[in-house]
């Protein structure tokens, strides 16, 4: 059985088991005591109450609670003890190990691939030309994605009409988790909030150059890794051939070894994907999706429009290929992006698909895709634009044209260099919200649904990466041959 089929089966198994586990707790058993301890009320009544009246539990109360509902406990604590989380703890580690295994290979893969890609081009001018085209494409599509996000949010008005009880429940469940994301990016948020547009661009350029390349490698600072790799690859082309040849041979051997490691790591993908999907579906369930159905639809419509209009235009009118055949040819990368929510984890699959299914040369794929995994986050930028307007609408904050243009600029710049890992978009969203004066605490409203939408926007990011790879190959005169029915993994 092909690995691609195994991954799909793993995803399906995770969804089915996760759905079963999500219904494994009985809400009717959950009750809380009032301040006098005289009566029990259901969790629905508790969370319909105002925040000041809402009952919570102490650790000692919760430690002794049993399934009969004795004691005072919040819904989040109840779910953790009696809900799906009590089962997912036994499978979470499988998904975590799979993600860590793939991420372990990302930095060396990006470093070696970019060094080889830059060195194999053999011409500094060609390296600069391709780099400029790639960066320009990513900035253009990310800005367009932000504009589409603003447009669909203004038309769909997803934050208008959200019931107050739903708002209260979402905030109560996800406030602490959302705040941890806000706190993790607090320094960067405060700095960017005070910067002008020019200063933001300059700060981005400065971040490209690492003060210590080894620290950048150790910390996974992908912007720094990319700069160092390109700089090293360019310099290899400058030194005499008798000295550059052994270096190129060494990096070529390293690249083959890393690709073999990736191949072996991918054998664990079906189990890792199953565990990841099980956790997402079991903990999220249908409640949050129902409360935020309108918001979810607006985000998904925006992402679909971006694929059809932006990416589809480049594929059809420039690369002269059928967009449907293109999507079929990259299906393995799409499945991996959706199941892992990580551009970085999908990078090895994307490179394999580009060479085998799109007919792109190894040097082009090695040059473009590592760049894309770091600086191309158009799906993330679109999501942030919709989320910012959604939260503003919920809090009845009117954002004028200038504020919405600021969202487009900030979302575009903030997405560049964002970590290609699950949940990184929440940190950059806090930055976008702070820039236009929308309460960052509003992230709690969408936090519960973030993982599902993160999966979808990661797919858009990966499609954008592979679209540029196809466009770049066409611009370099390569012969493109799509293989929509070929299985690359």
Key terms:
489 residues, mainly alpha
How would you describe the overall organization of this protein?
β1 and β2 form a beta hairpin. About 9% of the residues have low confidence. The longest helix is centred in the N-terminal third of the chain and has 33 residues. The protein has 489 residues and is an all-alpha fold. The N and C termini lie close together (11 Å). It is built from 25 helices and two strands. It is 74% helix and 1% strand. A two-stranded antiparallel ribbon has the order 1-2.
Give the topology, please.
Blueprint (H helix, E strand, L loop, with lengths): L2 H20 L8 E3 L6 E3 H6 L10 H5 L11 H8 L2 H4 L3 H30 L2 H33 L7 H21 L1 H9 L2 H11 L5 H7 L2 H17 L2 H26 L2 H16 L2 H5 L1 H26 L4 H7 L1 H10 L2 H14 L5 H14 L2 H17 L6 H15 L8 H12 L7 H5 L2 H26 L14
Antiparallel strand pairs: 1-2
Task: Describe, in short, the structure shown.
With 489 residues, the protein is mostly helical.
Biggest sheet features: 2 strands, antiparallel
Distance between the termini: 11 Å
| Strand percent estimate | under 5%
What's the overall average pLDDT, rounded?
78
Structural class: mainly alpha
Strand tally is 2
């Amino acid at each position: 059985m092909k690995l691609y089929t195994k991954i799909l089966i793993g995803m399906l198994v995770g969804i089915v088991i996760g759905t079963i586990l999500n219904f494994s707790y009985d809400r009717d058993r959950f009750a809380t005591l009032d301040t006098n301890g005289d009566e029990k009320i259901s969790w629905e009544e508790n969370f319909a109450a105002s925040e000041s009246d809402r009952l919570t539990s102490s650790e000692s109360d919760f430690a002794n609670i049993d399934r009969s509902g004795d004691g005072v406990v919040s819904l989040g604590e109840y779910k953790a003890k009696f809900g799906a989380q009590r089962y997912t703890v036994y499978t979470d580690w499988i998904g975590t190990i799979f993600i860590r295994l793939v991420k372990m290979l990302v930095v060396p893969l990006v470093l070696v691939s970019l060094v080889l890609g830059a060195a194999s081009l053999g011409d500094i001018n060609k390296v600069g030309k391709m780099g400029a085209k790639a960066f320009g494409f990513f900035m253009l599509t990310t800005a367009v994605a932000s504009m589409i996000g603003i447009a669909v949010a203004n038309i769909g008005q997803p934050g208008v009409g959200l019931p107050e009880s739903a708002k209260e429940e979402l905030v109560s469940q996800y406030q602490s988790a959302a705040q941890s994301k806000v706190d993790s990016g607090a320094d960067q948020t405060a700095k960017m909030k005070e910067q002008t547009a020019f200063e933001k661009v300059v700060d981005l350029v400065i971040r490209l150059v690492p003060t210590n390349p080894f620290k950048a490698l150790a910390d996974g600072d992908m912007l720094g890794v990319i700069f160092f790799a390109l700089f090293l690859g360019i310099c290899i082309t400058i030194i005499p051939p008798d000295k550059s040849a052994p270096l190129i041979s060494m990096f070529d051997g390293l690249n083959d070894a890393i690709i073999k490691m990736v191949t072996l790591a991918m054998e664990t993908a079906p189990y890792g994907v199953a565990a990841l999907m099980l956790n997402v579906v079991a903990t999220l369930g249908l409640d949050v999706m129902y409360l935020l159905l309108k918001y979810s639809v607006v985000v998904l419509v925006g992402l679909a429009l971006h694929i059809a209009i932006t990416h589809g235009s480049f594929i059809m009118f420039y690369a002269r290929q059928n967009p449907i055949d293109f999507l079929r040819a990259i299906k393995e990368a799409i499945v991996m992006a959706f199941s892992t929510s990580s551009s970085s984890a999908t990078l090895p699959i994307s490179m394999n698909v580009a060479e085998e299914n799109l007919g792109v040369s190894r040097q082009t794929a090695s040059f473009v895709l590592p760049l894309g995994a770091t600086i191309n986050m158009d799906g993330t930028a679109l999501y942030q634009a919709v989320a910012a307007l959604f939260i503003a609408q919920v809090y009845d904050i009117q954002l004028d044209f200038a504020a919405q243009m600021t969202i487009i600029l900030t979302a575009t710049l903030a997405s560049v260099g964002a970590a290609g890992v699950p949940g990184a978009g929440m940190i950059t969203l806090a930055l976008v919200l702070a820039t236009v004066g929308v309460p960052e605490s509003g992230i709690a409203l969408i936090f519960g649904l973030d993982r599902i939408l993160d999966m979808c926007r990661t797919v858009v990011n990966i499609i954008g990466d592979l679209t540029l790879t196809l466009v770049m190959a066409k611009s370099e005169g390569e012969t493109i041959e799509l293989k929509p029915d070929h299985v690359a993994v």
